Structure formats: structure tokens, C-alpha cells
Amino acid sequence: MRGAVLFAILFVANQAWADEIVITGRLEQGGVAVGIAPVGSKIIFNSRALTPTGTGQFVLGFDRDAATSAELEIKRPDGTSEHRQLAIQPRKWAIERVKGLPQALVTPDPATEARIAADNKLMAAVRERTEAVPFYESGFIRPAEGRISGVFGSQRILNGVPRAPHVGLDIAGPVGTPIHAAADGIVSLAKADMVLTGQSVVIEHGFGLDTVYIHMSAIRVSDGQRVKQGDVIGAIGQSGRANGPHLHFGVTWFNTRLDPETVLAVLPAK
């Protein structure tokens, strides 16, 4: 049952070595997993070279439309390698119809499109940076109190126009409701004037994992600031493209969007 059982893989081709390699988490679209390999191993996942922690731990992420198979290669310290095809479970996605948005942000003019493209480029660059410290080991908490008004993966119909799927968890609440850091980390972006996302914050949690907080009414942190889980980083608002006050909470692994509810289940606060 999804939400009750974590998928686990034990590599068994070489038993002496295989006992040291375990992957736990959810191998599914939007999912996240954490692996352990012998210290000194090199990890390659779908052609991306990953740096493990000093204890051999590494993180894997699977996007909303991930293929049903993913390739993992682990190069052992002795120079030999293991290749595995990971089976990724597909999911079904809802359709959400959102009305009342500023039409200029649903069908923007060329000048606004250019600003949006610049914002997207900045966000992509921020997500590709990563800290070589496993801050994520604090686990993750839901960053704000409120009603869940939008879920990950749903196909969005904005003012009647089909748009990209939703890639976060929306938490509705009154303007000014405190927003907390979901996990320990370092603020990699604190920007108040992004076109679609409004007042926005990104926190790095190490080894590719970031959290994203957008549509805020206030930002209480600055670039480069170290934060602890639960620290107030801002407040719920309605900035950017939003039809009501809420926090859009996102989780990414590099530029792969993950389901925040899955991350909260796989990596809960300790």
C-alpha cells in the first residue's frame, strides 16, 4: 500500500559486497530514495554522477513523468561495477481547475515572458548548486499550518487554459501565517520580485535536495543564511500568480521536482 510501505532493494549479485548496498524510499513517479554504498564508491544515476556522503549515502529523485525504469551504476572502490535497472512505479494524477488568476500571468505579453524566462533560468541554476553536507538528515516537516489546497502532479487548468502540471504542495492560510524551514539547510535564494512565484525562498539541504517556498507576503531570511528546521523564514501571502493566500511548498532533487508529501513520509523529522 502506498504511504504504508517503503520500497527496499538489496543488491545480491555479489553477496559479500551486496550486503552493504541498500536503497530505501519510494521508487515511484515523484518519489525519493536514499541509498547506502561502500565508502569510496562512485554513483551514476541516469548518466548523472552523484557524490555520496562520507558514509557512502546518496540520494535519488524521480520526477512526475519518470520512465518506468531507471539506470543505476555503482563503481566499487576495487574498480569493479554493478549495473541495475530500477523499476519506477507509475502514478495517476488528478486534474485541478484554477480560476480567478491575473490573466496577464496566464497568457503573458512578450516582455513578461522574458522576465519569466529569466526567473526560470535563475531557479534552474540555484537548484543545480548543492552543499556537500547532508543537512537533510534532520528530516522534513510540513512548513506551515493550513488547508491543503493543491497537490503535486495534478494537471492544471488555469482560467480555462491547460498549463504545466502542479509541482508542489499548496497550503492555504491567512496572510501572515508563519512559514518554517522544513529541514536544516542554507538559504540559496531569497528574492522578492519573481513574476510567477512572487516572494520566493529556496533552501539547500545537501546532495541535491532543495525546498522551495513561494507566493510569500514576507521573507525573513537572506541569501547564504544557515537555518535550522522550524526557523521562521517568511509568511504566507498571495504574491506572484496566485488566486488566494497560500504557500506553494516544493521539493527538488537538482532540477527534478519531487512530491513533497512523499518526501515528508520517506524523510520524516527525527
Q: In the residues, how many domains can be counted?
A: 2
> Low-confidence parts lasting 5 or more residues at pLDDT below 50?
1-19
Largest sheet: 10 strands, antiparallel
* CATH architecture label name of the largest domain: Distorted Sandwich
Question: How far is the N terminus from the C terminus?
Answer: 23 Å
Strand fraction: 35-45%
- What's the helical proportion of residues? 10-25%
The arrangement of helices and strands along the chain is EHEEEEEEEEHHEEEEEEEEEEEEH
Class by SSE composition: mainly beta
The fourth-level CATH homologous superfamily of the largest domain is Glucose Permease (Domain IIA)
Shape: globular
Q: What Rg, in angstroms, do the CA atoms define?
A: 19 Å
Q: Would you state the CATH class of the largest domain?
A: Mainly Beta
Q: Helix count?
A: 4
What average pLDDT do the residues reach?
89
Tell me the number of strands: 21
Named CATH topology of the largest domain:
Glucose Permease (Domain IIA)
Detailed description of the structure:
This protein is mainly beta. It has 2 domains: 7-87, Immunoglobulin-like (Sandwich); 95-266, Glucose Permease (Domain IIA) (Distorted Sandwich). It has 4 helices and 21 strands. Strands 10, 13, 14, 15, 16, 17, 18, 19, 20 and 21 form a 10-stranded antiparallel sheet that branches. A 4-stranded antiparallel sheet has the order 1-2-3-6, with helices on one face. A hairpin with a 2-residue loop joins strand 4 and strand 5 (48-50). The longest helix is centred in the middle third of the chain and has 19 residues, at 110-128. The protein is globular and about 60 Å long. The chain starts with 6 loop residues before the first strand and ends with a helix. Residues 1-19 have low confidence and may be disordered.
